[in-house]
Every structure is written in C-alpha cells, then in structure tokens.
C-alpha cells in the first residue's frame, strides 16, 4: 500500500534510511560485529576471483560492488551484463565465485548464466530482495537485501540495499583475510542513513532543480569519475526510464573524446564529485561543458564543495558516497517524470521483473 504517497516510487525513495537501519540490524551480531552466513564467508575466502552478473540498475550496483571488493577486500572482481555473459563467456579463473545481483530474483538473463555455470560446477551467491525466488533457490547461497517489497518499476531502495549489502560482504571478506580497515562499516552505514534522511527532507529543492534543468529538455548528461561515474550511469537510467528524456552517463574524462560535441546552449549536465582525488579533474570537465553553454547541476560532498555547487551531501565515508548521491538523482527523475505527466510507477514498455531473455 502506498498510504499517503502519490506514487510507490516516492514512498520507496523515502524508505531508504529505514532500509539502511534494517540491514544494519540484520547483519549485526550481539557484539556489534558483522554477522554473515558461514557458507558465504567461506566461499568468498576460497575463490580467486568474483564474477558479478546482473542487469540494469542491479548491474550499476555491481560496478560499485567491484570497487568495494577490490579496494576493501582485495578480491579481483569482474562485473558482467547477464545477457552478454551467457552467450559470450569470458575466460574464467581457476576458482571463480559468481554473485548474481537481482532485486526480483527472477530475471531470465541471469538465470541463463546460472544454469551454465552450474553445469561447470562453480559456486554462486544470489543477492536478492525476494527470498525463495528462482535465483535464490538455484544458487549455492543467498544474501538478503531486506529492502521490503519494491513495487515501482524504477528500482530505488533495492539499489541502495544492494550497495549496503555489498559493503558488508566486502568488509566481512577483508576481516576474514585479516586486512586492517580503519573504519566500522555498520557505523558508517548508520551515518549514510542519516545523510539520506536529510535529503528526503529537502524534496522541495529537488523538485525545483528538476523543474529548472529537466522540465522541457530533450536530453541530459550525467558525468562523474570513478564511483561517481557508476552513479552517473544509474542517474541516467532512472531519468530515461520514467521521464523518457534521452539521458546518458559518461566518465568525465571521456567527454573530450566525442560526447562533448553534443553539448549546446542550455544542455543540462548533472555532475557528481564525491571523491577527493578526482575533484579537481571533474571540475575542469564541468568548466569545459560550461564554456560550451551547458547548464550544470553540481552534486558534491561536504568538504569538497565550492561556491555555487547545487547540492552538498553530508560527509559520509567516500566509498559509501554512492548510496547517498543517488537519492538526489532518484528524486530529480521522479519530479521530472511528474512535471512531464509521465506514469511514474508504470513507465511504458517496461515490466517490473523481466522473465524472458
Ligand atoms: C531499473 C530497473 C531495471 C532492473 C533490471 C534487473 O530501474 O528496475 O533495470 O534493475 O531489470 O532487475 P532485477 O534486479 O530484478 O534482476
């Protein structure tokens, strides 16, 4: 039930701080340490490489999961689009572990891969919001997202839940390998929850930004570097699927290799900067597009902000910034779709769970 909310999507965006708390609670033991399925922990320890398989928004979560697994847990990780992997399987390592990320647990493209890798005898983990779903039943292990039912076709709270569970998995693996981390992941996720809440309380601001940047536009670009680039891809997908605005996410440094030709007077560019080591670089990309007339909306993190920035999220752990910066993008997509009279919860041509290949 959507209660007093006009749309499920808005309700599900608002539920994200609550989902963070739920995940912390469920993945925490009595001594405030991470509690994780032994089978999952052992599988992570035993593998020499992780292959993340997913589609759409879940694929975008996988791209960030790779960075977490590599940077935090030092596990080499590849991320693959499910529909590509099944018919063009890359060379596999000696001891691969497959992680299927799927909100619904029913996506046929993922199932096709699972069937193939089971024939080869490889272990798998399904990370899903639906315990008992096909992918959960057929994989060796399951990790629950605990986001609660997601009804709107556009995925929001499942994406941030995926990032939170990937964080927990990466940190647990690091701890099992004896890697010193220097941060408490559950505490950091609680801080993320608070930062999300602050954004949910500023909806008017995002409605205004959506109106200013997206009401009549034909297209829109999202740029970032590193993790912010992966969030840019998700921001673009959200916007195109519900508002039908042609949107694309780009790595800031790639603009000059072609895309910048599309920038005209008034083209909206949503820029993300939450990673200190590339803050200067992305800001020079912003100058390049502004010089060609782009209308730039800058989203950054406390400590990295500069005068004139449009949205400054609270200071969270840099690895977890994507969990927070995606909220403004979700809200801007929501309001853009609303202003343009689109069917927010049920966009044309799309189904909530894609059970055909
Ligand atoms: C986008 C969206 C889709 C799904 C994709 C995978 O908002 O919802 O891109 O993310 O169809 O679905 P799951 O995660 O159920 O496998």
Can you give keywords for this protein?
globular; five-stranded parallel sheet; 357 residues; binds fructose -6-phosphate; alpha/beta
Task: Give a short summary of the structure.
With 357 residues, this protein is of the alpha/beta class. The protein has 13 helices and ten strands. The strands form two sheets. Strands 2-1-3-4-5 form a five-stranded parallel sheet, with helices on both faces. The chain has a five-stranded parallel sheet with strand order 7-6-8-9-10, with helices on both faces.
Count the helices. How many? 13
First-residue to last-residue Cα separation: 30 Å
Percent range for helical residues? 40-55%
Total beta strands: 10
Q: What is Rg? A: 20 Å
Shape: globular
Enzyme class: transferase
Function: Catalyzes the first step in hexosamine metabolism, converting fructose-6P into glucosamine-6P using glutamine as a nitrogen source.
Active site: 352
Domain SIS: 40-179, 209-347
């Amino acid at each position: 039930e959507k209660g007093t909310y006009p749309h499920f999507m808005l309700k599900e965006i608002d539920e994200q701080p609550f989902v963070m708390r739920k995940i912390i609670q469920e993945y925490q033991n009595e001594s405030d340490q991470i509690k994780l399925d032994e089978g999952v922990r052992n599988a992570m320890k035993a593998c020499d490489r992780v292959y993340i398989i997913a589609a759409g928004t879940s694929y975008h979560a996988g791209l960030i999961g790779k960075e977490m697994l590599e940077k935090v847990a030092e596990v080499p990780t590849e991320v693959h689009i499910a529909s590509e992997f099944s018919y063009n399987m890359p060379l596999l390592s000696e001891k691969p572990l497959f992680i299927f990320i799927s909100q619904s647990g029913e996506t046929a493209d993922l199932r096709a891969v699972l069937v193939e890798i089971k024939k080869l005898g490889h272990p798998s983990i399904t990370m899903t919001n639906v315990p008992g779903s096909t992918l959960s039943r057929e994989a060796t292990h399951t990790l629950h997202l605990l986001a609660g039912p997601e009804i709107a076709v556009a995925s929001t709270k499942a994406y941030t839940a995926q990032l939170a569970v990937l964080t927990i998995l990466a940190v647990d693996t690091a701890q099992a390998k004896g890697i010193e981390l220097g941060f408490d992941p559950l505490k950091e996720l609680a801080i993320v929850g608070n930062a999300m809440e602050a954004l949910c309380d500023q909806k008017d601001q995002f409605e205004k930004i959506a109106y200013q940047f997206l009401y009549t536009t034909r297209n829109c670009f999202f740029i970032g570097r590193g993790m912010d680039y992966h969030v840019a891809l998700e921001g673009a997908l959200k916007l195109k699927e519900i508002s039908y605005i042609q949107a694309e996410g780009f790595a800031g440094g790639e603009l000059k290799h072609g895309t910048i030709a599309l920038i005209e007077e008034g083209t909206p560019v949503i820029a993300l900067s939450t990673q200190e080591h590339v803050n200067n670089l992305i800001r020079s990309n912003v100058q390049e597009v502004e010089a060609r007339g782009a209308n730039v909306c800058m989203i950054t993190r406390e400590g990295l902000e500069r005068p004139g920035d449009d949205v400054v999220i609270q200071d969270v752990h840099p690895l977890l910034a994507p969990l927070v910066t995606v909220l403004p993008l979700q809200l801007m997509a929501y309001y853009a779709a609303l202003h343009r009279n689109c069917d927010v919860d049920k966009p044309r041509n799309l189904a909530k769970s894609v059970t055909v290949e």
